[in-house]
Amino acid sequence: MTAQLANGGFRIYPKITVDKKDQTFESIKYKMEQNTKTLKENISSDSGFSAIRKAGEDLFNVDIKEYVPLFRNQENVKFVLDAMFASTNEIRGTSYSSRINDDKYRFAGKTGTSQVKRITKKARELDLTTSEIAYQDRDHALFIAFGPYKSPRYAVSIIVEHGGSGSSTAAPMAKKLFKLIVDRHELRTQTRNKNLEIS
After folding, report:
1. 43 CB contacts (<8 Å, ≥6 apart)?
2. Model-level pTM?
3. DSSP 3-state assignment of 64?
4. Domain residue spans in the chain?
């Protein structure tokens, strides 16, 4: 979903890229064909789920090239993107401490925290830090982001089980990840071009 917001609110059709020289290519291809066949049969067997059938037909139509907007009003997408930028790059944002000021790496994101158990009144009064809470009772830390902000190329979703808050645990991971993937982009491009020349 983050990638679909980053591209301006248009549907993305996922694809899997496999090196044809890899010895597992044929087995992966066979399994995908069998799963696709089974899913198509299950979707078409129940006439009560026409919406699911339609979604399945869209899923298996790999030749789709059109850009389908996900939202009626594209201004809503801009509003969400601006809010994600503010959350990471403006001083009161929840992931402000994980921002990168260099436009080459700058990203936009949103933190989240998933509570794993009900917090009692007594527990709230104790005001414990994450490290003082039993591991299995700590909240899950979440963070979604896309970057570089001006020309989005990557989207990430980070979940840290029992990591506490998204701002203290997951967002700093995204900062390191964006620096790594943006720095390695040139190397990936060179490798891809080299492989195309060989083919």
Report:
1. 49, 52, 53, 56, 57
2. 0.68
3. coil
4. 1-70, 72-199
